[in-house]
Specification:
Order of helices and strands: HEHEEHEHEHHEEHEEHEEHEH
Largest sheet: 7 strands, parallel
Number of strands: 12
CATH superfamily of the largest domain: NAD(P)-binding Rossmann-like Domain
Distance between the termini: 13 Å
Radius of gyration: 19 Å
Strand content: 15-25%
Shape: globular
CATH architecture of the largest domain: 3-Layer(aba) Sandwich
CATH class of the largest domain: Alpha Beta
Helix content: 25-40%
Length: 331
């Protein structure tokens, strides 16, 4: 099995050209950091990563040879000036805002931030004549009853508002890409991933792997003999290493024009590529794995919350797999 770095290098050497000028919007996110690492190995002529001015990033966001700029993607004029100055050929739009439900944003603020970022970046990319754009979305934004049945049933409860906001942002971003492609002949694609883990993660992030790791590391440091997780042991999680996500994005970015043509309108999925991890991990299984990595050997109690998020079906990665992509890292 290839290591993450090896899988990226193989894809890059096969598909990516040295003449590209790339911009990674959201370079401080876990996905953004992985994309920067991948682009470093391609010999890309120029790579610029953008960071939000109101967010503190880990040291792993810094990369030798890559220029990082502070950019507020919610400000359309600022984004447009930057794109017209840099004239990128390829743009990656990765998430870089606060984590879902971390207390920094309300639901309305999160949705406003996400939609404004997508609108501004896509319009600036179109005006600057960008050849390719990949929007990175999260599958855990899409409730299973919507993803599988395509109807607008809405779960009730406080966290349901976050689920619906995330769902709305992902779907609207993909639709916006599809509209640009149909009306302007652009090649804007969407790569949808499950929850990602790996280098560049913040322990205060909302991901279940990061949350479990934080709890077990704290327990090991303070030596309690019991950890209480507000989580269901039966919850199912589809996970993907962030380097595998970056490899999928690089592959989509490098596809020939014939593979980036909008499909029939009735198909409704446009240029969407699902990068699935291939299996579910139960909450109990995942907790055992993370506890072992963290070096915690005490008791674990699951305090199942009254309200839980919907369980999601596995992503269908057959489209990407037919193009040569496959997850290389086993949790």
């Amino acid at each position: 099995m290839l290591l993450p770095e090896q899988s990226l290098n193989v894809l890059n050497s096969q598909y990516m050209s040295r003449g590209m000028r790339a911009v990674v919007v959201g370079a401080g996110s876990m996905a953004g950091c992985a994309l920067l690492r991948s682009l470093e190995s391609t010999g890309c002529d120029r790579v610029v990563g953008t960071l939000n001015r109101d967010i503190t990033y880990p040291a792993s966001s810094r990369h030798d040879g890559i220029r990082l700029e502070v950019l507020e993607p919610r400000h359309g004029a600022e984004v447009r000036r930057m794109f017209l100055r840099e004239r990128p050929t390829h743009v990656f739009l990765a998430s870089s805002g606060p984590c879902i439900g971390d207390g920094r944003d309300t639901v309305a603020q999160f949705l406003q931030r996400s939609l404004a970022t997508q609108v501004n970046v896509l319009q600036a990319a179109f005006e600057a004549g960008v050849d390719r754009l990949v929007l990175v979305g999260a599958a855990n934004s899409i409730p299973s009853h919507i993803a599988t049945q395509g109807r607008k049933a809405r779960p009730a409860g406080p966290s349901a508002a976050w689920v619906e906001a995330r769902f709305s942002a992902v779907i609207k971003g993909g639709k916006l890409c599809e509209c640009y492609n149909r009306h302007h002949g652009t090649r804007f694609a969407t790569v949808i991933a499950p929850e990602v883990y790996g280098p560049g993660a913040c322990l205060d992030a909302a991901g279940v792997v990061q949350l479990f790791m934080q709890r077990f590391l704290e327990a090991r440091a303070s030596s309690p003999n019991c950890v209480v997780l507000k989580h269901s042991p039966c919850a199912r999680h589809e996970l993907l290493h962030v380097n595998d996500l970056a490899a999928a994005c690089m592959l989509v970015m490098s596809l020939p024009d014939s593979d980036l043509q909008p499909g029939p309108i009735e198909a409704g999925d446009g240029l969407r590529f699902d990068a699935g991890g291939g299996r579910h991990f139960g909450g109990f299984e995942l907790a055992c794995l993370v506890a072992n990595v963290a070096g915690y050997d005490g008791k674990v109690i699951f305090d199942v919350p009254r309200e839980t998020e919907p369980q999601l079906p596995l992503l269908d990665a057959s489209r990407l797999k037919s193009l040569g992509w496959c997850p290389q890292v086993d949790l």
